[in-house]
Amino acid sequence: MLNRSDTSDRSGAVNLLKEFIAEKGYTPGDRLPSERELISQLDLKRNALRKGLDALEREGVIWRHVGKGTFISGHDDLDIGMMTDVGHQITPVKMMRARQCIEAVIAREAAINASRKAVKKISEIKERARHASSWAEYETQDDLFHYAIAEAADNILLLALFDQLAKVRRSVAVNTVIRETQRPPEDHSSFTEHDRIFAAIEARDPKAAHDAMWQHISSVSSRLFEEV
Fold this sequence. Notes:
Arc Repressor Mutant, subunit A, two-stranded antiparallel ribbon, globular
């Protein structure tokens, strides 16, 4: 039976959701119940549930489609192995270059296709990233910001490509960045870059969204590797 204790924090919610998925026998492509139903069935608070779902989304266990629901990802062992192998063969700089090319196009499509709900979601995540109390929290929200944009493009193939890129990114060895502060400073350049990306998507300006994302990934790459 599901253990409903210790569900007040994110790790407890994640464990509970994984147990629920396994117990119910969900397989890749299956849609999970709505948030309201999950709250009722799992006896979770809405905030804890959303944190748990965000964490599972980052892990690649689920993916969410605005207006359609939350689905079990179709990642199998072969797929993960292939992406890990690619990650072992590509340099970090080339990985970032691939991000730049793919995510710029995704941002352009998001500016064309994003629903009002998707735009609101991007905005909320952007603000959570800006007010993160630690670098770890910021990086979590940053990942979710980029995923929300891919989701907003409303193209399942582009979302799948983004997922594959994320797998490679996780497997690429990048030197640990030494942080001089506990949290991102108020003038952290990514905040302004995120604002520009969001503003272009909200304004339905495909070229501006493409260019803003291209510049953002270029800026991140420059900070990490001292070259684009």
